[in-house]
Amino acid sequence: MSLNTLPLLFVNLGGEMVYILDQRLRAQNISAEKARRVMHDIVGTMLNRRFMEELFKPQELYSKKAVRTVFDRLAHASIMRLNAASMDKLYDLMTMAFKYQVSLCLRPNDILLTTLNHLDAILKFVEGMTM
After folding, report:
1. pLDDT tens per residue across span 36-56
2. Nearest to residue 118, comparing CAs of 49, 47, 63, 55?
3. Dist. CA 47–CA 123, nearest whole Å
4. How far apart are CA 81 and CA 62, in angstroms?
5. 110: which residues sit within 8 A by CB, 6+ positions away?
6. How many CB atoms are located within 10 Å of the residue 90 CB?
C-alpha cells in the first residue's frame, strides 16, 4: 500500500463529513450561530497545522478502526454531541459517498480531482463562515 494514501483518505472523508453535518444542522433547524460554531470547531480541528503535518508524513494507512476513531473524535471536537447510533450513521454515509465517488473514477487522476473538489468545498464553506 502506498505511504501517501492517508491524506487523500482523510481529506475526502473529512469533506464528506462537512457536507453531511452542514446538511443535518440545517435540516434540524439549529440556530445559525450554533451551526457556525460547530462547523468552525470541526473544520478548525480537521485542518489543524500540527495534525496536518503529521498526516502528510509518509506512513501506512490506518486501520478501519483507527480511521473511525479519528473521525469520531473530530465530530466531537465541538459543542455538538452525537450518540453512538448517530455517529455510526454519519460514518457510514461518509464512507458510502466516498466509495461511490471512487467507483466513478476511471483514472488515478480522477481521485485527485475528487480530492480537490472536497478541498474547494471546504474552502468555500470556511470562507462563508464568519467567526
Report:
1. 899 999 999 999 999 999 999
2. 47
3. 11
4. 24
5. 104
6. 19
